Amino acid sequence: MSTTRWGQNNAMAQGTVQVTHTGTSRWRRRTGEYASLAAALEAAADGDVLTIAPGTYRENLVVQRAVTLRGPEGSPGSVRIAPLDGVPLIVRASAMVQDLHVEGQDAAAPALLVEEGTPELTDLRIVTRSAAGVEVRGGARPTVRRCTVDNPAGVGIAVLDGAGGVFEECEVVAAGQAGVAVRGGAHPRLERCRVHHASGNGLTATGENSALEAVGCEIYEVRGSGLQITQRATAHLTDCNVHRTTGDGVTLDTDAVLTLADCRIHEIPENAVDLRSRSVLTLTRTTVRQFGRNGLSVWDPGTRVDANQCEIFDSTGDYPAVWVSDGATAVLDSCRVHDVPDALFVLDRGSRADVVDSDLSQVRNTAVSVSDGATAQLDDCRIREAATGAWFRDHGSGGTLNSCTLDGVQTGVIVTKGADPTIERCTVDSPSEAGFYVSAGGRGTFLNCRVRGSTGYGFHVIDGCRTVLRRCRTERCARGGYEFADPAPDDGSGTGPVMDDCTSDESGSLRQPTAHEAAVETVRQSAGLLGSVPGQRAEQEPPTGAAEPEEPQKPVRTSKDVLGELDALVGLESVKREVRALTDMIEVGRRRQRAGLKAASVKRHLVFTGSPGTGKTTVARLYGEILASLDVLDKGHLVEVSRVDLVGEHIGSTAIRTQEAFERARDGVLFIDEAYALSPEDAGRDFGKEAIDTLVKLMEDHRDAVVVIVAGYTTEMQRFLSVNPGVASRFSRTITFGDYGPEELLRIVGQQADEHEYQLAQGTSEALLKYFTAIPKGPAFGNGRTARQTFEAMVERHASRVARLGDPSTDDLTLLYAEDLPDLP
């Protein structure tokens, strides 16, 4: 079939239809020129070519035959199909449509509707503000090439109700909702397409039998998820790029199935991939980076991720790279996870992670954390440069580490609170604290494990934990190969560690330790989690050359001077006796040591209980100064913290905050006010438990570097001490601070008056006694704080009274009268 080109002789070849639009000129049927596009389409037969002259056509076109409908060659975009309402272009046949500019004016109708056939749509530009830019439905299977869709009011491309088709090199430049939406059993394929600046999700597929395939596509700058698959839909993406979203990168929900191969997901402020409700994700050779929350977030029973040869790295937030919870499963095979706060967290009974031949490195906190009854299995994995290699946190949590290496970690494996993993043929190289650490009722079986070059211990088991060690080996461990400290009372649950055929380079073989001895003596103090612990300085010749002068030490008061200040405090007689008893024990112990006698061990960590305003912080400060005067602490300074200073908002941040507070208190006293707030009654997954666990470990690892005092109401502090089996054993003594009586509160006001050069007039003391006797002693009562606030209120009322005097005397300026007392609260 031949066509007549625009500008040539108007004689028409048979089977050719040409439509011209010249404004006011007459339409000449004898030359094949028709008065409207609709008339030309009506006259055309299958195989005919309709070439449209440049111009704007206010017609609704319906293509029902296999014709070719196109604009003039060399003038793309010169033909505008722009009716005032309705659908501008409907295709119901295997036609060819190309080089048209289609504009929709009807908010309720798509700009281009494809309902039947296998049409080819090429180089179209769709501009509209309607429900959909392009809508494909029913049995239609179009091939759409190099088309652009601009629809800031609705969906860019909608493929519905069993339709399909191929979209090649198309671009959605704006969408008020999803860029591409697939539902109702539709199944399109996208090749080398770009979807961006969508106000909804980039690509979305919903509903059973709905399927989406994308190859070489890019989804970015969307105000939602880059890709959303839900309600039994499936999708397969190859060599695609998802980035710069405001929501998750990829979202799967309710039995969704997705395969990602050779894809890249990055610059995501939320989860890079989030899947729930029995969804299944398979990733191959895919990279996930620069995510604000989790790289992979996997929830709910039946939900599963299988990742092979993938890389997850460069987190921008404080969340674990891989999060598996509520009974979900994750499998990582030959993967790399690095430069993240935490690598893998597995939580909740039924949750499981299987990690094979993978690298977890440059992890700021914990590489693998297993808690709340979850399970993790690691085979032939490498963990490098992490604060903690693996932490099995609590009862029911377990799994296996098999043939793994841990290098450059602070602690290789931690087992606490009833967790019971199996660690087999694993090697920990150069830990800065311990190779393996078990406390607070943790168990664990260690088979053929090795620790080399530890700055601390090789195996450190405390609290009488029933841990099994068989055929284990330690080499060059600075503090000792095996340490079994602080055995817990035998409650029938066990009698401490069980050892079989374990060796150390310090001793050829080790026997089973008794309840009151360690397997290997401590060699020296470790560098610890936060830095070196000052040890005994060796006497040596000063180095030659210029040396920087040492910073002068500030003068330290003697213990007698500090105890004098303690005695001067109002009330607190039982507290003073307790502190003096501790001081005497420490002082006599030092004298016995100088005499070559054994000194009783004094645990210096304390619990202060009582109401607010009873002097707990003041006594803690003086206690630190006393310990410094006795050379028990180098500085004796006080660092006061509370829950807000220790507990972070995100997984992993709590351990960091707690460690930082502990480091600030090094060589002094860490005072934790209202410590019971770390273990609320409805704790659930409260991060306060992590602060307590971290604190207990730090107190053990740095027992000589920091004194910890926890304070709070009496009843609440009893709950705090019971939350962790290792907590109560760390605090040797509880000191109770009683409420002040009226006479003591009066003395505090008198001290405040003397300090600020005021005097109590005659009768004011009696009025104050009556005031403090009558004042409510409820939760708002602040003891010493209430006394100070009362004095401040009296000074304010005094000022208001004296300001009205013309020439006040010295007595007027200094005397406080009963009338200056504030009203009772």
TrEMBL record:
<comment type="similarity">
    <text>Belongs to the CbxX/CfxQ family.</text>
</comment>
<dbReference type="InterPro" id="IPR050773">
    <property type="entry name" value="CbxX/CfxQ_RuBisCO_ESX"/>
</dbReference>
<dbReference type="InterPro" id="IPR027417">
    <property type="entry name" value="P-loop_NTPase"/>
</dbReference>
<feature type="domain" description="Carbohydrate-binding/sugar hydrolysis">
    <location>
        <begin position="324"/>
        <end position="485"/>
    </location>
</feature>
<keyword id="KW-0067">ATP-binding</keyword>
<dbReference type="InterPro" id="IPR041627">
    <property type="entry name" value="AAA_lid_6"/>
</dbReference>
<dbReference type="InterPro" id="IPR011050">
    <property type="entry name" value="Pectin_lyase_fold/virulence"/>
</dbReference>
<feature type="region of interest" description="Disordered">
    <location>
        <begin position="531"/>
        <end position="559"/>
    </location>
</feature>
<dbReference type="InterPro" id="IPR003959">
    <property type="entry name" value="ATPase_AAA_core"/>
</dbReference>
<protein>
    <submittedName>
        <fullName>Sporulation protein</fullName>
    </submittedName>
</protein>
<dbReference type="GO" id="GO:0005524">
    <property type="term" value="F:ATP binding"/>
</dbReference>
<dbReference type="InterPro" id="IPR003593">
    <property type="entry name" value="AAA+_ATPase"/>
</dbReference>
<dbReference type="Pfam" id="PF00004">
    <property type="entry name" value="AAA"/>
</dbReference>
<dbReference type="GO" id="GO:0016887">
    <property type="term" value="F:ATP hydrolysis activity"/>
</dbReference>
<keyword id="KW-0677">Repeat</keyword>
<dbReference type="InterPro" id="IPR006633">
    <property type="entry name" value="Carb-bd_sugar_hydrolysis-dom"/>
</dbReference>
<keyword id="KW-0547">Nucleotide-binding</keyword>
<dbReference type="InterPro" id="IPR000641">
    <property type="entry name" value="CbxX/CfxQ"/>
</dbReference>
<dbReference type="InterPro" id="IPR006626">
    <property type="entry name" value="PbH1"/>
</dbReference>
<feature type="domain" description="Carbohydrate-binding/sugar hydrolysis">
    <location>
        <begin position="52"/>
        <end position="183"/>
    </location>
</feature>
<feature type="domain" description="AAA+ ATPase">
    <location>
        <begin position="602"/>
        <end position="741"/>
    </location>
</feature>
<dbReference type="InterPro" id="IPR039448">
    <property type="entry name" value="Beta_helix"/>
</dbReference>
<dbReference type="InterPro" id="IPR012334">
    <property type="entry name" value="Pectin_lyas_fold"/>
</dbReference>
<dbReference type="Pfam" id="PF13229">
    <property type="entry name" value="Beta_helix"/>
</dbReference>
<dbReference type="Pfam" id="PF17866">
    <property type="entry name" value="AAA_lid_6"/>
</dbReference>
<feature type="region of interest" description="Disordered">
    <location>
        <begin position="483"/>
        <end position="519"/>
    </location>
</feature>
